[in-house]
Amino acid sequence: MRRIARVAFLADSFHEVNGAARTCRELTGFAKRQAYPFFSIRFARNESFASDGPVWTLELKRSPLSLRVDPDLWFDLAFCRFRRKLERRLNQFSPDIIHVMAPGELGVLGAIAAWRMRIPLVAAWHTNIHEYAVRRFPFGSWRIRSFVQEFVLRQILHLYRRGAVLLAPTRELTEMLQLRTGRPAFLMKRGVDCAAFSPEHRRRSDEKVVIGYVGRLMPEKGVRFFARLDLHLKRAGVRDYRIFIAGWGSEECWLRDHLPDAEFRGILDPEALGRAYADMDIFVFPSRTDTFGNVVQEALASGVPAVVTDSGGPRTIVEHGVTGAVASSDEEMCAQITNLILSPEERKKLGVAGRLSMLTRSWDDVFHGVYRHMPRVSNLRPALLSKLQERNFFRTLADVNLRVGQPGVNRTTARESIRICLQYGLPTSLEELSIVPSRPRSVPDQRQFIRGVISQPAREFNLPRAGPGGDLQRVFARPLSVPVFFLA
């Protein structure tokens, strides 16, 4: 019988209303249904801990020092206070894999815990934060904005370089991650509940064409396009339509001012959302920054053709001319929507094809695929432990010399030694640290040398004694004073 990996899952977004949070809730629900050993760690309004058979849940409360980064998303500046509690619970659960979903508070803490506990880290990419940053950057030329985007991306990739395996929802993102981090990256698409989102929920009987949108009303979503679409349709003489918008965000006031005839419904409960999709005739998603686009799949599952841009994840969901339309510009998107309004038979054909294409994309199928790869990742642990011990030993020597100012190793050399160890491993680190006169030539000799060095008292290397007996075992087992991923 195949052993199921014990997974600790740290989600920075869980109870919020967005695609990443929906994916996290579905993964946790899948583990419960399958009775897999799973530890879900997330933020909530109140702290709590619960264990339901093999599934554990830890909810943490953010502090008053939290900064708002979205209408319903926060970043806790005091998140480091959770480290001890988190590692204590992780030790009790004894995971084979630590899985993080974003470079937020829990993503950072999960990466640190994986490094300290010598556990393989799986890092999933759910949000194109670097593109969001550019859309919200209030000023500057395209050169400045490109610099901001690249700078933010480089900071995010510090976390993903710590992963043993990376996951992303589109092939374009997996290729980018593999190229920029040098880590293996695999596809983890997202599923859709075809029972909750179905044409059977349709209740409308009027003849008006409903153009719908579901999602956050934020600048990066490109929702101001609907004002341009409304103007285009009126100039084209199209009158028998209605714009329906579900969601909320900073752009809502602007949209209400410029779309006086549109219907705004805010955030809907699951049943009302299923009915809202089914009552649409065309789903429009003008975002160019979305990582995937769960809402596009939900619309297609409801039998509604979708019109999307040719940038980001939604274009990988919609097949142009078969389940909807993919447009390269606002003008082309307006033209595609106009054609669909005037062609009810075409809308019906695309809707049926969209529904059929979603019937094979269940959440359970997605997560069964992910779990098929989990044993390979958990099997990395013995080799990872050995390699990290060797590397950590030399990084600790560099850190000790950096702090106590040993002769022959200045601060610059010590910092450079840490980087060399991270980049190349053992071969150059012995010589660079100036701890020993010469380094062994072959890798097996180096490993034997390490085992011999570890067993020697610290005083023979002019290093501080590490507790009773001065055994260097305690030195290399101690964490660095700076998280590893900030040194890459």
How would you describe what is shown here?
The protein is an alpha/beta fold. The protein folds into 3 domains: 7-191 and 365-379, Rossmann fold; 199-360, Glycogen Phosphorylase B (Rossmann fold); 382-486, no CATH class. The protein is 44% helix and 15% strand. It contains 18 helices and 16 strands. The chain has an 8-stranded mixed beta sheet, sandwiched between helices. Helix 10 crosses helix 12. The radius of gyration is 26 Å and the shape is globular. The relative contact order is 0.09.
Q: What labels describe this entry?
A:
globular, Rossmann fold, alpha/beta, 6-stranded parallel sheet, 16 strands, 488 residues, 18 helices, single chain
Give the topology, please:
Blueprint: E1 7-11, H1 19-34, E2 38-44, E3 48-52, E4 55-61, E5 66-70, E6 73-76, H2 83-93, E7 97-100, H3 105-117, E8 121-124, H4 129-135, H5 142-160, E9 165-168, H6 171-181, E10 185-187, E11 209-214, H7 225-235, E12 241-246, H8 252-258, E13 263-264, H9 270-278, E14 282-285, H10 294-301, E15 306-309, E16 324-327, H11 330-341, H12 344-358, H13 363-378, H14 381-404, H15 411-424, H16 429-433, H17 443-454, H18 472-477
Parallel strand pairs: 1-2, 1-7, 2-4, 7-8, 8-9, 9-10, 11-12, 11-14, 12-13, 14-15, 15-16
Antiparallel strand pairs: 3-4, 5-6
Helix pairs in contact: 4-5, 10-12, 14-15
